[in-house]
Amino acid sequence: MGSEPESCIDDTRYMTDDDDVIDEYDNVTLMYAKHEKIPMKDFGSEIRATMDIDHLLNKAVLLLDLQETSLEEIFAKIIHEMDIQEPEFTSEQVRSVLFTQDAGNQFHILSRTVQSICTTGSVGGSFDYDQTWICALCMLNTVQHRHVAIARLSHPTNLGRTMQDLRFIIIVIAPSRAKGTKTALETTRTFATLFADMEIRQRLVMAQSVEQFRSTLLSAAKELAMDQNQWRERKSSIHLSHAKEQIFGPEAWYPFRGLVEEFKRRLAIYPSDYLDGIRGHKTVQKLFSTVVFLYFACLLPAIAFGVLNDDNTKGAINVRKVIIAQAIGGIFFSLFGGQPMIILLTTVPLAIYIKVIFKISQELGYDFLAMYACVGLFCQMFLILYSATELCSLMKFATRSAEEMFSLFIAIAFTVESIRAIHNSFKKNYNDCDTSAISMKAARTALNAFKNGSNADSIVGNITSSMSIGDTGSLCRRDTSILYMLLMFGTLWLGLFLYNFRKTPYLTRSRREWLADYALPASVLIMSFTGSYAFSDIEKDRFNLRFEFPLIQMADVTSLPPSGYFVCLLLGFSLSFLFFIDQNITSAIVNNNQNKLKKGTSHNLDLFVVALLNMFLSVFGLPWMHGALPHSPLHLRALADVEERVSQGHVHEVIMNVRETRLASLIAHVMILVSMFFLIPYPLQLIPTSVLHGLFLYMALTSLSGNEMFERLLLLITEQQAYPPTHYIRKVPQRKVHLFTACQLLQLIILCAFGFSPYPFIEMVFPIVCFFFLPIRHTLIPRLIDYKYLDALDGRH
């Protein structure tokens, strides 16, 4: 698409007479020309293509065998015949937009056109225009509907550059504000795809009447859609046969086959996992920035999850235990894990499950740490069984929709925990205080002080002291709850502001990226300093380091009764689904082909190493860990070389190379281990819990970026004209898009109903519910939505 370039600079501008030079420059102007390659319309998958042909062609103006020979005359004839009945529309508006005007208001060149080109195959990649047809398009504020006109000239006519053998002219007029699939360009692309076919043009030349011309175009569109669908089905069948071979394998199966193969492959390149962290252009610089990023990105969430687990288990699993587990687990996996790009963390779903185990142990009267260790050991035995039998291959059936629903569930869990924390703060300092009793007590205090002849400062001090204590003796610090809210939402706002700073025009691009990368630690440190020093006179909620609990203590698993082991077996089996799904989804995202990793996958080996690590953590009462999002892909991106590409006006980033090294994760977690001896209790305990819950909200909102389910939920409340030009909007009818979103939303509601149930025996099965989304996607959803639409909505692209 583009206007025709034209040179308007006159060589005679160097005349010696000044007046003549001025006269010459009065006739000189500059012409801006832009050419952009756009894809052909896929009539088989882009549903709007066939709909546009059926709808617009029946209303289109068709003119056959025009006798006019000049561009202006031809277009004037076509616009006149279109007879557009819009209140504010005039033909002059169309001509002013279709053509570029010179100083004398002469219409001499088309502004926006679409034509097909054919590469010549010569050196330099030159191409030739197909000069037998041209599409001209324009957008007007004065029209409310799309209008199309197609003209066939009586004989091939030379109308200028790229139109030297012109036979067909198509004009498309569309509203300026139109839905993404109904813009002038999209409509033009539909008709241009048909006219780019030489056979279709030949059939249109032979048409004897307007009705025959119209029916020829309609049938050609249907034939093209059928041909493209057949090609896609052939391609799909080949793809499915390959998938079956990849899942089950062409060779004989035996236990631990995949595990042994992955171990041998990773062992052969193990030295390079360290050398790749120090060799290469800017590698050391990348390594340093990644280590700093991982240090804060792992330590701060570890503190936040430690606070959450402390609340859920009454200190049995606390901040100190989570930090030491993070250090041990990170070092162990960076040394022995198969895919070094994966970062292990304890997560919100694991915290929810630990709370379930704690509730059940309290109800049944079991020792929590003994039950926790037993559940963990049973779970890891199942994970070793899964890795030995290559069940990780089943995750190839997992589609993007499962990842999206699980990601939204985690975001909701973050939000729920933060809201619950601020609710408890206000409940403690507002609802649990008897304000009437406090007021009466303050009045009595003031009266007694006045009778005793106390000075004003003493009276105010006595009143303040009396108002701070309710009848039950609990402190009513309302300023604490207000500050809690300010710090929590302040951390969220500052984090989002820095995270989105890369989208602003301020500073340089590298500095904007630097600020965005360190948004998480910067927001926590700044708001912690603000709370600790700017509001030093206000009491703040701080987490307890629980020194009364030993840091590492071996659990007595033999203290459980026989029935307790059966309960632990059920809990461990359900928990194994959570580990299996989370670990493999993280591994799949990291090993995506777009990341251009070169050392291969190791799903089974990673799961096996995670199982061994969590056996140790279970026995010693430390929190479990597995591959975490978004830390793992962020770790990969921090070690990558990224370039910006522009496609159809949209800027996107492309990963060119990744330094697949173990050093960044290893060094960062060694630093976390060392920090245990320098940051506890100070300055670590200066971080208010409100800031940590603000961190939860930050992680919840930033995880929504790129989540297509969330984007489709927003479409339900978005004006159609503002719909983004995403691939599924082009290929799937709107009602099918909303139906698929509704199915996902229903599954998410069911998952939340189990995951946030007040009954622990119901809550314990939420990992199994999540796993059953896979068969639902492949058995029930296709009964509601065709496979070709599901491929666009839920395929890997």
TrEMBL record:
<feature type="transmembrane region" description="Helical">
    <location>
        <begin position="482"/>
        <end position="499"/>
    </location>
</feature>
<keyword id="KW-0813">Transport</keyword>
<feature type="transmembrane region" description="Helical">
    <location>
        <begin position="519"/>
        <end position="536"/>
    </location>
</feature>
<feature type="transmembrane region" description="Helical">
    <location>
        <begin position="557"/>
        <end position="581"/>
    </location>
</feature>
<keyword id="KW-0472">Membrane</keyword>
<feature type="transmembrane region" description="Helical">
    <location>
        <begin position="762"/>
        <end position="780"/>
    </location>
</feature>
<feature type="transmembrane region" description="Helical">
    <location>
        <begin position="737"/>
        <end position="756"/>
    </location>
</feature>
<feature type="transmembrane region" description="Helical">
    <location>
        <begin position="607"/>
        <end position="629"/>
    </location>
</feature>
<keyword id="KW-0406">Ion transport</keyword>
<comment type="similarity">
    <text>Belongs to the anion exchanger (TC 2.A.31) family.</text>
</comment>
<keyword id="KW-1003">Cell membrane</keyword>
<dbReference type="InterPro" id="IPR016152">
    <property type="entry name" value="PTrfase/Anion_transptr"/>
</dbReference>
<dbReference type="InterPro" id="IPR011531">
    <property type="entry name" value="HCO3_transpt-like_TM_dom"/>
</dbReference>
<feature type="transmembrane region" description="Helical">
    <location>
        <begin position="366"/>
        <end position="385"/>
    </location>
</feature>
<dbReference type="InterPro" id="IPR003020">
    <property type="entry name" value="HCO3_transpt_euk"/>
</dbReference>
<feature type="transmembrane region" description="Helical">
    <location>
        <begin position="663"/>
        <end position="680"/>
    </location>
</feature>
<feature type="domain" description="Bicarbonate transporter-like transmembrane">
    <location>
        <begin position="255"/>
        <end position="795"/>
    </location>
</feature>
<feature type="transmembrane region" description="Helical">
    <location>
        <begin position="287"/>
        <end position="308"/>
    </location>
</feature>
<keyword id="KW-1133">Transmembrane helix</keyword>
<feature type="transmembrane region" description="Helical">
    <location>
        <begin position="328"/>
        <end position="354"/>
    </location>
</feature>
<dbReference type="GO" id="GO:0005452">
    <property type="term" value="F:solute:inorganic anion antiporter activity"/>
</dbReference>
<dbReference type="GO" id="GO:0006820">
    <property type="term" value="P:monoatomic anion transport"/>
</dbReference>
<feature type="transmembrane region" description="Helical">
    <location>
        <begin position="405"/>
        <end position="422"/>
    </location>
</feature>
<protein>
    <submittedName>
        <fullName>Bicarbonate transporter-like transmembrane domain-containing protein</fullName>
    </submittedName>
</protein>
<dbReference type="Pfam" id="PF00955">
    <property type="entry name" value="HCO3_cotransp"/>
</dbReference>
<keyword id="KW-0812">Transmembrane</keyword>
<dbReference type="GO" id="GO:0005886">
    <property type="term" value="C:plasma membrane"/>
</dbReference>
